């Protein structure tokens, strides 16, 4: 069987967790979905996983389980290696007038993480890769830059969110990867089965942190 990652021709000889195990509290293993992965695309970069997890928890806390996961999975790592991880998270941070702190986000890391996660979700749903004619990009609804969009774009985004807030219509029910631990991670996939349309993947972590992954069928869009 091929690796789960879009366009990869290597065999899937290892297992990749989607999302990573570190996102779940100890003892909650019912959510540990896996897909076949080659060694290259097996997510062995724990620093990236922890970076993404820390940012998600900081943006979702105290909602649902985010604060708990941060305290158990992230806090004890902040002072490792003379505080290297803490410095990485806080580099470029800005103190706001209301006492809050605005932290910068490494967009490239987030895009790479959610592209891999979306590829895994699709592979788990239909047992095949995202076709190479699909372009993947992401909207991060919890980040400040997303909220600073022009009013016309915000209105369009709100309308789009309403369309995908419920369960997919039958014609756009691409399938379900069978996520079970909704307090940690839920995902919905909108699109015509068999890759007959573009696909929208809605990820929600800890009931609050939402990412919309847009998988655009370039050939169909141009036809």
Automatic annotation (TrEMBL):
| Domain of life per record | Bacteria
Protein name (Swiss-Prot/TrEMBL): HNH endonuclease
């Amino acid at each position: 069987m091929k690796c789960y990652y879009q366009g990869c021709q290597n065999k899937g000889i290892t297992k990749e967790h989607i999302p990573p195990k570190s996102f779940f509290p100890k003892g909650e293993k019912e959510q540990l979905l896996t897909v076949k992965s080659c060694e290259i695309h097996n997510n062995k970069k724990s620093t990236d996983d922890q970076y993404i997890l820390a940012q998600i928890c900081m943006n979702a806390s105290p909602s649902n389980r985010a604060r708990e996961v941060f305290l158990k999975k992230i806090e004890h790592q902040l002072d490792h290696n003379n505080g290297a991880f803490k410095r990485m998270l806080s580099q470029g941070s800005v103190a706001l007038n209301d006492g809050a702190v605005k932290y910068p986000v490494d967009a490239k890391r987030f895009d790479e993480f959610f592209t891999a996660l979306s590829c895994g979700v699709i592979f788990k749903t239909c047992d095949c890769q995202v076709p190479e004619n699909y372009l993947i990009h992401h909207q991060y609804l919890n980040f400040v830059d997303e909220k600073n969009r022009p009013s016309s774009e915000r209105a369009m985004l709100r309308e789009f969110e309403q369309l995908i807030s419920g369960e997919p219509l039958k014609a756009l029910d691409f399938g379900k990867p069978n996520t079970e631990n909704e307090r940690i991670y839920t995902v919905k996939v909108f699109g015509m089965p068999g890759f007959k349309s573009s696909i929208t993947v809605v990820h929600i972590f800890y009931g609050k942190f939402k990412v919309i992954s847009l998988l655009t069928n370039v050939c169909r869009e141009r036809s």
